[in-house]
Amino acid sequence: MGYNAAPLERLVEQFSKFPGIGRKGATRMAYQVLSMPAAEAAELAKAIEEAHTKLHRCKICQDYTENDLCKVCSSPKRDHSVICVVESPRDVTAFERTREYNGLYHVLHGLISPMDGIGADQLCVKELLARLHDGEVKEVIMATNPTVEGEATAMYLAKLIKPLGIKTTRLAYGLPVGSSLEYADETTLYKALSGRGEL
Description:
Radius of gyration: 20 Å
Largest sheet: 5 strands, mixed
Strand order of the largest sheet: 4-3-5-6-7
Distance between the termini: 52 Å
Structural class: alpha/beta
Oligomer: single chain
Low-confidence stretches: none
CATH topology of the largest domain: Dna Topoisomerase Vi A Subunit, Chain: A, domain 2
Number of domains: 2
CATH class of the largest domain: Alpha Beta
């Protein structure tokens, strides 16, 4: 317990759980919340609570949605023959910003990482495979981050998908190795998408 009053200290502790937020940043955020008018602070608390209670995973792609199906999966305008496989819902947002991709998505909610004890069974792999048996899907794009874990996950999935006779491609390396899709600009993402190659 620091010098702060207990409720403030608890708030700092909660903020410091966010990735990339140290104690200094967490303390700044806590004081920012304290300086808000009561109604604004209540709105923030309500937004956090509603995000947790109203959002759940889409029955098809596993992205977050308020309904049974997300907007992408339920849209008749999307190309249902292509699925872009990503690590997290944040990556879907990144691709949608490009306005260049018109297919569907599949969110794995993580990557295979033996060092962290994460295997394929802890990811949404079976949900992906279940989507590939009706003959509608012609291509699966592996859009996992260009990291060791991202590569391992893409190769593992490609081995499972190829025997089904479905084209399996990987994003081209317009993306710097070790970077995160979330922070890539639209042009880089578009180039990586358009220059993808078969695995």
